[in-house]
Amino acid sequence: MASPNGDGDFESSLLSFEKLDRASPDLWPEQLPGVSEFAASFKNPITNSPPKWMAELESEDIEMLKELGSLTTANLMEKVKGLQNLAYQLGLEESREMTRGKFLNILERPKK
């Protein structure tokens, strides 16, 4: 066994005064890419200003977001199907109007 005076020397020889900072990507690789930037964006979670994407929304838009957020999955799917049907109907109507414009020659370029 080591002497009582030698224990302090042994423990002090094990100490390391090396400074390890997380700035080195070689020493501390990021486990999930992008997590550091995401976490840094939430350093101050208590803010009075709305997020950037909400700054341009009007009160009607916010009400619609709240309404859509309160729908069940089935109701939300029904709403999406309704929007898809509406988009299809608008496409058909646009196609008819473009065909009509073609037959009426309103889309031709004027001849110089």
Automatic annotation (TrEMBL):
<dbReference type="Pfam" id="PF10044">
    <property type="entry name" value="LIN52"/>
</dbReference>
<protein>
    <recommendedName>
        <fullName>Protein lin-52 homolog</fullName>
    </recommendedName>
</protein>
<dbReference type="GO" id="GO:0070176">
    <property type="term" value="C:DRM complex"/>
</dbReference>
<dbReference type="GO" id="GO:0006355">
    <property type="term" value="P:regulation of DNA-templated transcription"/>
</dbReference>
<comment type="similarity">
    <text>Belongs to the lin-52 family.</text>
</comment>
<dbReference type="InterPro" id="IPR018737">
    <property type="entry name" value="DREAM_LIN52"/>
</dbReference>
